[in-house]
Amino acid sequence: MYEIKIISEFNAAHRLRGYRGECEKLHGHNWRVEAVGKTDKLTKNGLALDFRAFKRALADVLKNLDHAFLNDVKPFNRANPSSENIAKYIFDGLKKKPAIRDKLTLKKVSVWETSTSCATYRE
Ligand SMILES: [Zn+2]
């Protein structure tokens, strides 16, 4: 089995609902996103999936979040824009991209809110 990982970032503001503490106030993060896919098949060039194609698919999902106030972006106008929910949102969006669906099994998406705090979603 082969595993490939890409890393990207986006910048956005959010405010946690129903939370007592600093995070209920409007604030921003530079979120770091790691996506991991796996496959047991390589192309004849020896690739699982071209990293560029993987990154393009992730960038396409992240463009909805980048430089946004997440509480205004669906589904975070209802669901809390927590790192956990953001990781699942990115996972679900990325999994549907044809470039991913055809070549990889998406294994997990991790979202780093700070350099020491990370949430991961996997199915
Ligand atoms: Zn926050």
Q: How would you explain this protein's 3D organization?
A:
- This protein has 123 residues and is of the alpha+beta class.
- The chain has a single domain (2-121), classed as 6-pyruvoyl tetrahydropterin synthase/QueD (Tetrahydropterin Synthase, Chain A, 2-Layer Sandwich), CATH 3.30.479.
- It contains 3 helices and 5 strands; from the N terminus they run E-E-H-E-H-H-E-E.
- The chain has helices at residues 51-62, 83-96, 98-103, and strands spanning 2-14, 27-39, 68-69, 105-114, 117-121.
- It has a 5-stranded mixed sheet with strand order 3-1-2-4-5.
- The longest helix has 14 residues, at 83-96.
- The chain starts with a strand and ends with a strand.
- Zinc ion is lined by residues 14, 23, 27, 29, 113.
Question: Top keywords for this entry?
Answer:
123 residues, alpha+beta, Tetrahydropterin Synthase, Chain A, 5-stranded mixed β-sheet, 3 helices, 26% helix, 35% strand, elongated, binds zinc ion
Helix-strand blueprint:
Blueprint: E1 2-14, E2 27-39, H1 51-62, E3 68-69, H2 83-96, H3 98-103, E4 105-114, E5 117-121
Parallel strand pairs: 1-3
Antiparallel strand pairs: 1-2, 2-4, 4-5
Bound molecules: zinc ion.
Zinc ion is lined by residues 14, 23, 27, 29, 113.
Order of helices and strands: EEHEHHEE
Give a list of the ligands.
zinc ion
User: Beta-strand level of the residues, as a percent range?
Assistant: 25-35%
Q: Compute the average pLDDT.
A: 96
Uncertain stretches of 5 or more adjacent residues: none
The CATH homologous superfamily name equals: 6-pyruvoyl tetrahydropterin synthase/QueD
